[in-house]
Amino acid sequence: DVKVTQSSRYLVKRTGEKVFLECVQDMDHENMFWYRQDPGLGLRLIYFSYDVKMKEKGDIPEGYSVSREKKERFSLILESASTNQTSMYLCASSGEGGGSNYNEQFFGPGTRLTVL
Amino acid sequence: KNEVEQSPQNLTAQEGEFITINCSYSVGISALHWLQQHPGGGIVSLFMLSSGKKKHGRLIATINIQEKHSSLHITASHPRDSAVYICAVRSWRTSGSRLTFGEGTQLTVNP
Questions:
Q1: Distance from CA of B35 to the nearest CA of A (A)
Q2: Cβ count near A77 (within 10 Å)
Q3: A32, A34, B62, B66: which could form a disulfide with A46 (CB 3.0–4.6 Å)?
Q4: pLDDT tens across A40-55, in order?
Q5: Phi, psi of B57 (to 5 degrees)
Q6: Which residues, 6+ apart, have CB-to-CB distance to A86 below 8 Å?
């Protein structure tokens, strides 16, 4: 089974702190994604990466950066956390090529971040 | 207007009822996904389809490419089906395996 893990389930930070959210997948997937999920807005893509050291902005990249130094790990960084970044953050990964799971995204359990 | 619209936003049913959740999209797609999210839990993929119909247990997903519409049906609903159901599409114009999501349908099945 594909496993996507996230470093924390719950996180509380203060305004202005630098926050790191880590995501690790064990299926050698090329693609990795960071989303945030807010009531009434659904899932919104922050950044994604289709290869090591490659990244593309999603729909709401402002205030965030990402790092992908190894294929299995994709980090989301909040350079200076703000209260409007309080949200549920979900990581996902997907593979390329053929097979029945082609293009299916596998999600981590989520990190609920509260910024005070 | 969102590229992916789901209806209804909220749905309450009695155990045993037949449930339908609808998804309409406005872009050309290569695949449509139905996802399930339980309270406090992660998201799991239920179906990925590009044509026709798929069935898994009590769940059935259909898609009509010409009408840009998909439905998720749950037969003999049960309280454990209570969750948020999310429709997502992979459009031809986006890069990689990026998905565009609907806002989700909150389903509550009462015993």
A1: 10
A2: 16
A3: A34
A4: 888 999 999 999 999 9
A5: 65, -125
A6: A113, A114, A115
Q: Residues B69, B76: contact at Cβ < 8 Å? A: no
* Inter-chain touch A42–B103, beta carbons under 8 Å: yes
Per-window interface: B 81-110 vs A, CB < 8 A: 86, 88, 90, 95-99, 101-104
* Type of residue found at B89: V
Taking only the tens place, the pLDDT of each residue in B51-60 is: 999 999 999 9
User: Lowest mean pLDDT: which of A3-7, A102-106, B18-22, B79-83?
Assistant: A102-106
Instruction: Inform me whether the pLDDT recorded for B77 exceeds 90.
Output: yes
pLDDT at residue B97 tops 80: no
Q: CA-to-CA distance for B68 and B87, rounded, in angstroms?
A: 12
Q: Which amino acid is at B26?
A: S
Q: Does B60 touch chain A (CB under 8 A)?
A: no
Across the strands, what pairs with B99? none
The backbone torsions φ and ψ at residue A109, rounded to the nearest 5 degrees and listed phi first, read -75, -10
Spatial separation of the C-alpha atoms in residues B49 and B38, rounded to whole Å: 22
Segment (H or E) for A43: strand A42-51
Query: Are A107 and A29 spatial neighbours (Cβ–Cβ below 8 Å)?
Result: no
Strand partners, A23: A6, A74
Residue B106: what pLDDT?
A: 95
